[in-house]
């Protein structure tokens, strides 16, 4: 998901959570790149919270490679240029072994192409959902724990058609995320018999989208594929003020409390949205019971961030060193069958099995994580609706 053209200075902070008995000359350091500023700044902290919880749990259970696991974060600002600078610092100054992130698709691509590819660094994004990541030339180094928008677009199309919404107008933020999502939605919706009355890009960062909205009035059902903190809020607010639309729809980037700032929530009651979800089962139940500072289990992309960080730590333990070489192969080993199941939080069990030479297969908070050749995973897309001024999850979309 996500990208914005905004060049900002990179701010990096370090999180070091360790049990007192951990050795100081062992362990590993991983990085996190996310949009702490920019259009997804309200979404990023709880995503980071998912990764932070992993570090805390692992260190409480003895650490990685017998020592402390450290996590250093950097602001990619949902922007390719800022993310490249963030990745350069994490990779070439902080010498991280691997990176959780980035979040916006363009941010991930910019960070990886900037220093990741030349440094041979594994990236695991919990939120970059644009189809563009599937075809990235990455030497098997870039993975994601959230499904592609190729799936989210199909599921959203199916949901709208099932609700009897037979025509839509789409406006999308003009970047990899917006265009990829819009293309997938339009193709599936049309194939299902729906009519796309308009499908138009808009530029991020404008104060006035009334002209763009004027070109979308061929349908009263408005789909906005953008970010809650940025153009998503502005477009939705001005669409409500126009009185030209009766139904509002958004994707995962719109799911945030900030979306409704300055908007009469009664006017958008029933707003439909989608995001990545999780199946039912023991792994999800265990994860949902976790608590921690800065952690919200059901926050958008928090489960996927938890899985990305846990998988990266498992891969480092499996690889047996902080070397970047061999880490991708180790990641595929610990995430796929065959192997004894490892569930969220089961770090001690995983380390014992790895040391014994036993294959493991991590089943995560977001479901199974069997990466395909492109580093993608299958997944579940859930429906949300605005009810009483809040987003409420309604269940998986069939």
From TrEMBL:
Signal peptide limits: 1-23
Domain of life: Bacteria
GO BP term, example: amino acid transport
Keywords associated with the record: Amino-acid transport, Signal, Transport
InterPro entries membership: BCAA_transport (IPR051010), Leu-bd (IPR028081), Leu_Ile_Val-bd (IPR000709), Peripla_BP_I (IPR028082)
Annotated ranges, domain Leucine-binding protein: 29-335
One Pfam family of this chain: Peripla_BP_6
Cited PANTHER family: LEUCINE-SPECIFIC-BINDING PROTEIN, PERIPLASMIC BINDING PROTEIN OF ABC TRANSPORTER FOR NATURAL AMINO ACIDS
Similarity comment text for this entry: Belongs to the leucine-binding protein family.
Protein name per UniProt: Amino acid ABC transporter substrate-binding protein
Organism: Devosia riboflavina
């Amino acid at each position: 998901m996500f990208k914005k053209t905004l060049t900002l200075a990179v701010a990096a902070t370090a999180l070091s959570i360790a049990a007192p008995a951990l050795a100081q000359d062992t362990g590993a350091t991983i990085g996190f790149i996310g949009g702490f500023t920019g259009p997804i700044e309200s979404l990023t902290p709880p995503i980071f919270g998912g990764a932070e919880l992993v570090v805390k749990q692992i260190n409480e259970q003895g650490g990685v490679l017998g020592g402390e696991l450290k996590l250093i974060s950097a602001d990619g600002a949902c922007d390719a240029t800022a993310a490249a600078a963030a990745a350069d610092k994490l990779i070439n100054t902080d010498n991280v072994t691997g990176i959780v992130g980035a979040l916006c698709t363009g941010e991930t691509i910019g960070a990886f192409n900037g220093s990741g590819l030349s440094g041979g660094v594994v990236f695991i994004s919990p939120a970059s959902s644009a189809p563009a990541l599937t075809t990235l030339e990455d030497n098997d180094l870039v993975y994601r724990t959230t499904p592609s928008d190729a799936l989210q677009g199909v599921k959203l199309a199916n949901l709208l058609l099932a609700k009897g919404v037979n025509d839509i107008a789409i406006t999308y933020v003009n970047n990899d995320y917006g265009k990829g999502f819009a293309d997938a939605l339009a193709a599936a919706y049309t194939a299902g018999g729906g009519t796309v009355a308009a499908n138009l890009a808009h530029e991020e960062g404008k104060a006035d989208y009334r002209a763009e909205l004027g070109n979308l009035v061929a349908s009263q059902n408005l789909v906005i594929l953008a970010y809650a903190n940025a153009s998503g809020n502005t477009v939705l607010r001005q669409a409500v003020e126009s009185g030209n639309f009766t139904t509002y729809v958004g994707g995962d980037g719109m799911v945030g409390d900030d979306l409704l700032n300055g908007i009469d929530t009664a006017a958008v009651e029933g707003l439909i949205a989608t995001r990545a979800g999780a199946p039912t089962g023991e792994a999800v139940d265990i994860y949902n019971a976790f608590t921690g500072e800065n952690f919200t289990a059901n926050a958008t992309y928090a489960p996927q961030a938890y899985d990305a960080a846990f998988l990266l730590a498992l891969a480092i333990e499996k690889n047996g060193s902080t070397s970047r070489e061999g880490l991708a192969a180790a990641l595929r080993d610990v995430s796929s069958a065959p192997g004894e199941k490892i569930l969220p939080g089961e770090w001690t069990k995983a380390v014992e099995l790895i040391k014994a030479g036993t294959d493991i297969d991590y089943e995560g908070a977001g479901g199974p994580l069997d990466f395909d050749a492109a580093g993608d995973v299958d997944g579940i897309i859930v429906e949300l609706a605005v009810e009483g001024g809040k987003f409420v999850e309604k269940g998986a979309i069939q």
